[in-house]
Amino acid sequence: MSHACQCHTSEHDLMPAPYSIMTIEKHTPLEWTFRVQTDLPAQLGQFVEVSLPLVGEAPISVSDCGDGWMDLLIRNVGKVTSALFAKHPGETIWLRGSYGHGYPIDTFRYQKLLIVAGGTGVAPVKGLLRYFSEHPEEIEQLDMILGYKNQESVLYKREMPLWRETHHLTVTLDEGQSDGPYRIGRVTEPLQELDIRDIHATRAIVVGPPIMIKFVVQMLQDKGFKAEQIWVDYERRMACSTGKCGHCRMGNIYVCVDGPVFNYAQAQNFID
Ligand SMILES: Cc1cc2nc3c(=O)[nH]c(=O)nc-3n(C[C@H](O)[C@H](O)[C@H](O)COP(=O)(O)OP(=O)(O)OC[C@H]3O[C@@H](n4cnc5c(N)ncnc54)[C@H](O)[C@@H]3O)c2cc1C
Ligand code: FES
Q1: How far is the CA of 47 from the centre of ligand 1 (A)?
Q2: Cα gap 33→189, rounded to integer Å
Q3: Can you tell me which atom of ligand 2 is nearest the CA of 248?
Q4: For residues 95 and 48, is the Cβ–Cβ distance under 8 A?
Q5: Which neighbouring-strand residues pair with 19?
Q6: Share of the chain above pLDDT 90, in %
Q7: Counting ligands in written order, which one lies closest to the CA of residue 243?
Q8: Distance from residue 223's CA to the centre of ligand 1 (Å)
Q9: Cα dist. 123→47, 88, 130, 188, 190 in Å?
């Protein structure tokens, strides 16, 4: 089964085109999912450039997608995102893309998969979590460790019961009371305790702030994971998103076209 959400065209569209907002789901005051009516081709882990005329553009990960729709989890941090937060369902936003390389889902299918994600880093893997929760027969084992700052910043609360029911989900909070489904501490604590029997048959995805990626990848390697078994997702300042301007360049790598998802065997050699 293909992991592409739509296949109307394989060409990147360089011109932003208008699309209608179908729904807006408010996870926290600062993080909302905009479901956009679009047939842009997309793969989970790719990103689009979202724009508003006379305001600007921002790269945003495809957090989920399906037939005729795409979800964008947007954190209100600046010029473009705050203008987007003034929009309502039925109004128009502009998209171009999708860009870059997403997750090699076929590499994970029927394997053991471990996903460690933090904060808004959960957004790029949300579609994978949904897919393997709806198709548990397509994955041998799925362990998810998701970390947030506190209870108020937890994303995807609505989806979690299904993820918990079908696979192994641990949610950590940096601060607060150990309450109900949450555990206080960093993602590295449950990761350290995780009993991974078959390390050579397990793949890992790590998404989140650079410092989290660094410590989690180190711990995975200490546990015996080889770099080839680990995928990371990198965010860099972008402009063109098409490999032309050099904004996202790391050595001879362009994160916009070569990433943002990289196998760590490649990413460990990047010069920032
Ligand atoms: C591949 C990729 C995927 C991404 N996916 C997502 C996603 O799924 N969801 C999401 O919410 N974000 C995502 N981002 C991040 C998002 O693109 C940025 O946060 C983007 O800058 C937001 O645009 P903006 O115009 O709203 O913010 P900006 O106005 O660009 O501000 C962004 C940050 O920079 C600071 N800043 C702005 N101007 C200045 C200045 N002059 N001096 C100092 N600091 C300044 C702001 O305070 C703010 O913290 C992604 C980025 C990349 C590269
Ligand atoms: S953003 Fe222009 S080269 Fe990557």
Answers
A1: 14
A2: 29
A3: 4
A4: yes
A5: 93
A6: 82
A7: 2
A8: 34
A9: 11, 21, 11, 19, 21
Euclidean distance between CA atoms 112 and 260, whole angstroms = 22
Name beta bridge partners: 50: 58, 95
- The C-alpha atoms of residue 33 and residue 183 are separated, in whole angstroms, by 25
- Rounded CA-CA distance 149/152 in Å is 8
Question: What's at 19, amino acid-wise?
Answer: Y
The verdict on the CB of residue 256 being under 6 Å from ligand 2 is yes
- Is the entire prediction scored with pTM above 0.90? yes
pLDDT at 271: 66
Q: Which atom of ligand 1 is nearest to the CA of 233?
A: 1
| Alpha carbon of 80 to ligand 2 centroid (Å) | 18
Ligand 1 within 6 A of CB of 74:
yes
What distance in angstroms lies between residue 253's CA and the mean position of ligand 2's atoms? Answer: 10
Domains in the chain (CATH in brackets) are: 13-99 (2.40.30.10), 105-233 (3.40.50.80)
User: Is the distance from the beta carbon of residue 248 to the nearest atom of ligand 1 less than 6 Å?
Assistant: no
124-172 residue pLDDT tens: 999 999 999 999 999 999 999 999 999 999 999 999 999 998 889 999 9
